[in-house]
Amino acid sequence: MADLSLTDRRGALAQQAAEALRAHDAVLIAHYYVDGELQDLAQATGGCVADSLEMARFGRDHEARTLVVAGVRFMGETAKILSPEKRVLMPELEATCSLDLGCPADEFGQWCDAHPDRVAVVYANTSAAVKARADWVVTSACALPIVRHLHAQGKKLLWAPDKHLGGYIQEQTGADMLMWSGACIVHEEFKAVELELLRKEHPQALVLVHPESPAAVVAQADVVGSTSALLKAVADKRAKSYIVATDNGMMHRLRQVDPEAILIEAPTAGRSATCKSCAHCPWMAMNSLEAVIHCLHSGAGEIHIDPPVRDAARACIERMLAFTAASAIAPPAGGFVQHIGAV
Ligand code: 13P
Ligand code: SF4
Fewest CB within 10 angstroms: 33, 115, 131, 191, which? Predict the structure, then answer.
């Protein structure tokens, strides 16, 4: 391959990966934050590029015998929980999430034991063992309607692990929620003061914010929602320019749905910053074409979950999927789009 250009080499690798998927009766399910090459491969081979809710649905419904999940560990586990009969491979098994890491199952279990009167609602970004102890699982695409539903039934909640998403949901619903104190290391870095300055420079830009961001950033959003909800705002051509407060892996898909759109990354560093963030999840970045080919050829990266944990976790994931199906939170670019109003 020495005489091939970099573009040709990457194209040849993508070709190899496509052939490996075919040879192993496998489908690629990619999150919006993984490398653009993987997103393109998923689209070109009949897989999907989606938010975590749609990834779960797609894997459950696809007939392939092997699911290759390019994302982070909880996404692979969710696929396996919903399809125990399928082989689920991850290009990189070590790809985790700060929210998952920050919510160990034993501590979470003790917290639940201490509050038996509360319904335990966990974000999808948790281990299978945490989900097995919970009553409900939610993703950012359905957290708001599910909590609203539970609140309307008079339920008091335990919420884990994302304190920012939890704070946003509590503020929107008025629900009684005891909060775990986890955070996403990517979204937590978005800076409110610098965002205000950037908005002054770009007064026409629509501000898109993922609700894992701090409250002072969410408060400046025109649209706050899951990755699919943010994508939908751009696909609907709501504006000509956007300030985007989510992982910058998302830009690849946003550019595809509106090539004319001006996309500006929300600031992650500046005078109020304590460290510099690149606005890209280090665990999502572990996924690559090479790793997809390797996991398919070697069988490495297979997800295994103990059946009792799997079955307990499955009950509350299926509760979420049934709720979203009944309330028409529909694929592919569904999810809630919350209009905070012009700022
Ligand atoms: P979505 O469910 O919006 O895709 O979010 C998953 C995630 O990990 C965001 O950081
Ligand atoms: Fe977890 Fe944040 Fe990475 Fe999403 S972006 S997988 S929430 S660390």
Answer: 115
State the residue range of the domain holding 262. Answer: 187-280
Assess whether 269 and 198 both reside in one domain: yes
Of 163, 146, 260, 252, the residue nearest 211 (C-alpha): 163
pLDDT one-digit tens code per residue, 172-222: 999 999 999 999 999 999 999 999 999 999 999 999 999 999 999 999 999
CA of 23 to the centre of ligand 2 (A): 31
- Mapped onto helix, strand or coil, the DSSP state of residue 67 is strand
Ligand 2: residue whose CA is nearest its atom 6: 97
Q: Which amino acid residue places its CA nearest to atom 6 of ligand 1? A: 52
Residue 227 Cβ contacting ligand 1 at under 6 Å: yes
Neighbour-count burial of 36, counting CB atoms closer than 10 A to its CB (0-12 exposed, 13-18 middle, 19+ buried): middle
Residue 88 CB contacts under 8 Å (≥ 6 apart), including other chains: 59, 66, 67, 69, 76, 79, 80, 302, 303
Residue 225 to residue 230: CA distance in whole angstroms: 6
CA of 328 to the centre of ligand 1 (A): 19
Whether the full predicted model's pTM is greater than 0.85, yes or no, is yes
What CATH number did the domain enclosing 106 receive?
A: 3.40.50.10800
Q: What are phi and psi of 91, to 5 degrees?
A: -55, -30
Q: Is 186 in the pocket of ligand 2 (CB under 6 A)?
A: yes
3-state DSSP call for residue 203?
coil
- Number of folded domains that form the chain: 3
Position in ligand 1 atom list of the atom nearest CA 186: 10
- Ligand 1 neighbour 51 (Cβ under 6 A): yes
Cα(214) to ligand 1 centroid in Å equals 15
pLDDT of residue 342: 27
**Which residue's alpha carbon is nearest to atom 8 within ligand 1?**
125
pLDDT score of 85: 97
Question: Are residues 233 and 170 part of one domain?
Answer: no
